[in-house]
Amino acid sequence: MIMKVVPDTSVLIDGRVTRMLEEKELENPIIFIHEAVIGELEAQANRGKETGVNGLKEIQKLSDLREKTEIKINFKGKRPSLEEIKLADTGEIDSAIRNIALEEDALLLTSDIVQSEVAKAKGIDVKYLEPEKEETKSKIKIEDFFTENVMSVHLREGTIPKVKRGKPGEMEMSSVGEEQSSARELRKLTQEIIEKAKRSSDGFIEFDKGGATVIQLKDLRIAIARPPFSDGYEITAVRPVAKVSLDDYRLSQELKTRLSEKQRGVLVAGAPGAGKSTLAQAIAEYLLKKDFVVKTMEEPRDLQVSDEITQYTSLDGRIEDTADVLLLVRPDYTIYDEVRKTSHFQVFADMRLAGVGMIGVTHANRGIDALQRLIGRVELGMVPQVVDTIVFLEEAKIKKVYDISFTVKVPTGMVEEDLARPVIEVKDFETNETEYEVYTYGEQVVVMPVEEEKYKPIWSLAENEIEKELNKYIQGRIVADVTSEESVTVYVPKNEIGHLVGKGGENISAIEEDLGMKIDVQPHSERQRKNQPKKQKKNLVKGKKVDVTIEDNEVILDLGKDKSGETVDLYAGEDYLFTATVGKDGLIKIKKGASVANTIIKKVEKNTDIVVG
Fold first, then answer.
1. In sequence order, which ranges of 15-81 are alpha helices (DSSP H)?
2. For the whole model, what pTM was predicted?
3. What does pLDDT average to over the chain?
4. Domain total for the chain?
5. Nearest-10 Cα torsion for 517, 520, 526, 527
6. What is the pLDDT of residues 260-283, one digit of tens each?
């Protein structure tokens, strides 16, 4: 009796049919392949999915075997429409494959358990091939690159393979061999990696779409890029080079106490390669030993944690659904790697406000930048409830820990009592000194470095009061510049100097006595002349010049509508001023009286450009 076989998409992708033929499990069969299978695999390949490429290569192998053996291949059925391909997940193509097996009285081969059960229910002869998992320690070629101290491997067609050795903060790149990698070699290596991931119990295909595939294979995270996503074949594989405990870090004891006393909201921040995930893993292991229930949320799953810690990824592509499941699981702490998009921050905030301790890993150049990434995505007043601790790493070392708290006060540098408002204080965890204040001013959210304001907030007040006092004597613009606790230089229109000094200096003497300060009166032209050399020195920060308008009650910075909604750093020449979020109209408005407004006015009067850094 002639053996008839109908393979479905799953076994063609797995490459199981050719292996069964080679191992004589199938004896010279007639193989029926539905055109719908070809259409689905072609559609996958066109979308850049490696599964589609693998399935088509399996059919090519079967065609080659037909030339060498007595097997026969028949293509049957009609090519599926675009709508049918879109409905593949609902079972339309599987149904067409079953119909061929029924018509030909053939054996259906599948690795899809649902397809197998439906075929049995319809009385179709079916052989379910359970997806292969191998526990062997056989190595694949890319693992050969990982010799001692190799942290990552970088392969690209047309270039010599490179590896990065060392550890975060002490890494160097070097070439391996002298031969360039070809696209054909990398394609073959890609297929080997995917096959290994499918069969290994420690392997996962985390992402496969549009020319990009991300695979987790044991402790390797492998990212594969190919056209059309990239301009050439590229494989990057990364592994952790060291597994450390929380005891290996500075401030470890203080962090342990902080994490143990109650559930916290923590952002672990740093630049790529700074060691964020390594610290997150150390925190996870510490919390586990302290009998906390710990889970992870990862896209992709690449944290190297104990088997007791379950690692979750997105559910049907939605991390929000993963969060819903985790809330039912009720962990004490969740490690979220990594928090980057708006939806990620919103999920982080939702779980934190639900009472779950959250450790989020996020990219940031400075510790304060991690907080600024949260601002605008979460209501400002809720920020300290979502994140109360920021740990900033640089070169695998903890460089700064911030404590985030909430209070109502007059922001540093402001003087009027009616300017009191809710303020988020960002304090150095070690010294308890406030380094930044975050508050709303008009329509803007301002992130103000307090240390920049410490040098003379009282002097700014004194300058305002002196200018008001002098306005009683003369007309025209007055600029006071306090130079010490006992002296001030005032710049006035040249034709008003006589009126201010008075006959025999009586006016200026009276003012000096009232203020308790020595006053040096100068014309505006002298101030401009004296400051002219500084102009070239200070305009060192490259960036777009900002138009500044000084009105009666406020200072307006026009950054343009293209900057609407962005958080920007503003400089006067090379001097950092403040960080703020641009309003919808492209403007930042600051009321007069605020120290930063006074600083901007003084800088403009000194002909110093205000620029976006």
1. 16-22, 35-46, 50-68
2. 0.58
3. 84
4. 5
5. 0
6. 888 899 999 998 888 898 899 999
